[in-house]
Amino acid sequence: MVLLALCLLVLLSNYLDRLHTTNVKNSISTMYEDRLIVEDYILKMTTNVYQIRELLNSDIEYSQKDIAVSNLTLDFKNIFIVYSKTRLTKTEKATAVELIANFRKLERILLNNKNVPVIYTDKILSNLNKLSAIQLNESKLIMEQVESQYATIKTSSHFAFAIIIIILMVLQVLVFSGDSLIP
Questions:
Q1: Confidence of residue 147 (pLDDT cuts 50, 70, 90)
Q2: Are 73 and 107 spatial neighbours (Cβ–Cβ below 8 Å)?
Q3: Is the pTM of this model over 0.90?
Q4: H helix or E strand, kind and range, residue 132
Q5: What is the separation, in whole angstroms, between the first and last Cα of the chain?
Q6: Measured distance CA(90)–CA(10) in Å, rounded
Q7: Cα–Cα distance between 122 and 153 in angstroms, integer?
Q8: Helix 37-56 and helix 62-84: axis angle, to 10°?
Q9: Are 20 and 153 in contact (CB under 8 A)?
Q10: Which residue pairs, CB below 8 angstroms and at least 24 apart, start in 14-23?
């Protein structure tokens, strides 16, 4: 009976360790795929907006400026499409909707007037900064979850090890006590 309990405890401990390891692995994968990669998309979009701003304020010939701005806006939209396909929180979705609305306003203004006030790019950059801050907060939450799961793994392993030691001590006492369990 005691050996059966010992075997079941070892199997349960092994199962829990595998389950917790899978959870930690998934959290790390989420951190990479949904946070670090997305932060790269945000950085690329931010760079595009700054480049658009610089081009609009430059003395470059109009036709070259127009082509460069068109390429940057196309690149921004393509990155945004990829970004929007990632797993986003409700706050991220709301901010992304606001971001693309502000970007479309900028595009409409660019069609009518090449002298765009800085306020339009500032709004877009503000949205991108907000998205970046959300990424940081979500990453912190994921790390806290991983640390919590690791602590749970560690605690359950220590508990299982303590139970095994107690069972082995009880077995040793029974074996060496000299009292027979069978009369």
A1: confident
A2: yes
A3: no
A4: helix 118-176
A5: 18
A6: 42
A7: 46
A8: 160
A9: yes
A10: 16/153, 16/156, 17/153, 17/156, 17/157, 20/149, 20/150, 20/152, 20/153, 20/156, 21/153, 23/149
